[in-house]
What we know:
The complex is a heterodimer.
Chain A (H helix, E strand, L loop, with lengths): L1 H12 L2 H24 L2 H14 L4 H7 L7 E3 L4 E3 L31 H4 L2 H4 L8 H5 L16 H4 L11 H12 L2 H4 L22 H4 L2 H9 L1 H4 L12 H14 L20 H13 L8 E2 L5 E2 L16 H9 L17 H12 L17 H13 L2 H4 L36 H10 L17 H12 L3 H5 L18 H9 L7 E2 L2 E2 L9 H4 L2 H9 L19 H14 L16 H9 L26 H4 L2 H14 L12 H12 L12
Antiparallel strand pairs in A: 1-2, 3-4, 5-6
Helix pairs in contact in A: 9-21, 12-14, 14-18, 15-17, 16-17, 20-21, 23-26, 25-26, 27-30, 29-30
Chain B lengths: L1 H10 L2 H6 L8 H9 L18 H4 L2 H20 L8 H11 L4 H28 L8 H23 L4 H14 L6 H9 L6 H32 L12
Amino acid sequence: MTEKIRTAWKFLFGDSARAFGSLSVVLVVMLAVVPAKDHFREWLHYQHEYQSLIRNRSDGVSLARRFQGGVQQIWLPELDVVDRCATCHSGLKEASLAGVAAQPFRPHPPIPHSLTEFGCVMCHRGQGFATTVEDAHSSTKAWEQAILPARYVESSCGQCHERPLEGTPQLNAGRDMLARYGCVHCHKIASPEGRVMTATDDPPSLAHVAEKTTREWIFAWIKNPQAYATTATMPNFQLSDEDARDISAFLINQSTPYIAGAPRKTPAVPKQDDTAAVQQGSSVYGESFCASCHAMQNAAGLMTGGNIGPELTRVGSKVKPEWLADWLRNPKVYDPETAMPHYRFEEKDVGLVMGFLGSKTDSDFLKDVHMDTATAAQIAHGKTLVSERGCASCHEINGVAHADNFAPELTAVGSLPLAKILFAPGMAHTVPDYISAKIRNPRSFGNALKMPKFTLSDSQVDSLVTALLAQTTRAKTLPATLRIQAAPPSTYQPAGRAGQLMTDMRCFSCHEINGRGGSMAPELTWEGSSVQRGWLVSFLKRPNTLRPTLIRRMPKFNMTDEEASVLADYIMTVYQTAAFDGAAKFAGGDSAHGKDLYYGKYACNSCHILDPAKDKGYIGPTLTEVGLRLNPEWIFHWLKNAQALRPGTLEVNWNMNDEDARAITAFLMEQKAAPRKGASR
Amino acid sequence: MKLSEAVVGVRNSRVWRSVFRAGTGDTNLHRSLAVQQNVFMHLASVKVRRRALDFGVTWYLGTLSLGCFLILVVTGILLMLYYHPSVPQGYADMKDLQFVVSAGVFLRNLHRWSAHAMVLLVFAHMFKVFYRGAYRPPREFNWVVGVVLLMLTLFLSYTGYLLPWDQLAFWAITVGSNIMSAVPLMGAKTRFLILGGNTVNANALLRFYVLHCVILPLIAVVFLAVHFWRIRKDGGLHTGEKTHE
């Protein structure tokens, strides 16, 4: 063997000429490898494949004409985008390749943006510079951010779009959850222009909690909130029995009375076995439309009702009767910030509702909870726990200061460097996987972590991850012209006595006026231009629904005549649009011609009911008494351009000529039929 | 025969003689003139001991270092055609070299590996010289020149390290320049001077680029010339035989 090696060595490097020759051969081979490697680049292979794919197609000629070989690049310096994805993804813009399943040749699904104006990495991330599959899609040592898994791709829309988009339901849901589940109480999340996201869950103050409920209930609730109410947004802190005992001891101990010394009378509450009275209470609950905000499990086990207020399925096991009476009389006495309106209940009705809510008791819920009298040590330990667990980030608690930035800020969590993340053993090393695991089970990263566990479905977790992945550092560097900012929060507050009434009845919990308020009920900014005063007063006194397809939600507030009149005056005077220009144009139409147009040319009866016996339309409001309800000028302009009056309305934008609009207005103003029997109370 | 006659004819032509004045005579005078009248050749010795050419004497470490240096100059100039010393374009240019430029990866890797090899070879050269005692008189000055060349090699390595403008580069230079600032009295000033500021940023990148591509290579070429020239002046390579009989 050594002999052979020696011979070979002598042959190759025996003298200087041979050595020179051998090394030259090595050099030539090396220099030949370099262009060869260039020739066998991955993307060339894909481009050849694409060409053979289109060759056999009927539209191959036009596809081939549009095909461009070589490295294809999108360069957008102002967006910091260099994209070479189209080098291999040759068919991105070819809609006719829709049937092709094999990547990288599939066409891009239609999106509102032009691919060449936004590039690929803006939405899909990954390494745009790369021209190899591995480098472009995976996380490598030289480029950390891998391509975004398709199920989170909506998050990229959120980098610019701070308002909800129709095409991004998952992102919208995720953002709503960040606010609704109170994530932002502990975690700061700011938009690129610095606006901090605020929570919408309104956690109750615990400063007077001993007046409202018992220590036993607190114990059971903090052990597992979802055992009391499946829709509860309070997370599970996975407390031990001892910790829950001490926290409940402290919370009862810190509580102060909310009405100093006043003796509180409880109205006559019907006994639970008085089924007739409980049924009556149920009727008051129904008539007052409590279910517009509060959910309750019905006998069939289905959850019905809104999610603005807490679920009431087991409320009888929770609240004390004296507190409930005060609360129903006027909630603001206990909680000045509550979203619950001030119903002007008669004392008798308060008792009936209490009787009904008292029947909503789960005798099993507190069966096994027995609390001994708390010791001073337990109370002190409870206070420590309350501070450590960040209870005061959400709840107002006497003696424990609200903690700002209790948890890490998540403003740029979508761009979190992998080196800053402590991954749990066995999990994939990517940011989406980390966020998702952290939400699903925070304690899987260590028992000492404080983050509580939320009860969420898989799709809810995906939504949250999507919303969080939208918080990137790239979002900050994008030009301001691209950013669709969220509507600035409105601080609108109506003035005077009407303003006080609107605050008292919490109109803004459901209605939006001048940019402030909820989205459950119609927007009222121009209500005064729309309706007639007489109808408004009667509606405020006895609300009903206008639309056959919608369940009525507006509660009856038991207003006095004076209160209804003050509100109506204010609405008629202040909530006027500036767009109307006087009486000349809309008056004097031919109502007979209007009727023909209504049933003929414009077929309004497809959506609206005018004659309950004949008409079948049920999409739009019933118009039987529209002549009593609406202002003719409003009808005229509505017929001409409804979108201008109420953006997003389902009403067709007719662009009617003045004559037709005048005629239909005149016809509709004649519709003053008395309400159908039983249609509303 | 015809070929050699032609070669002689060319060598005796007027043009050839105007460039290479010395003829091709076989006397010692002609040989030494051929070397001394050529700007490149005159750095080398007129005569070399046969023993000095043996592999075992030097392991060719100096020549291999020079070879690396030449490769680095050539690939470095080619890389300069693609590289902008600016933030953040420098990093994007690395990506272009990796993914788009023909043979870009080859160029970059050749530059990088040659740089590593040069540092290794220069150290090996130093140790070889040291253990064979070749630093002793009359070669003590050339030893000092050699040490300067070692330092220049290291500076070239260090300045080149920042140019990719990636995390590795940024932090290596941050750490390195912080070490620099620990020098008593002038440390902080030196750091400011080298970086062109207080942090590693656009100025530092530009300064390192100029040092790496212009200043340090020019100084290295001057010292290389002195180094080679002194080999001849100090009596050729140290072979271990007695130089002065």
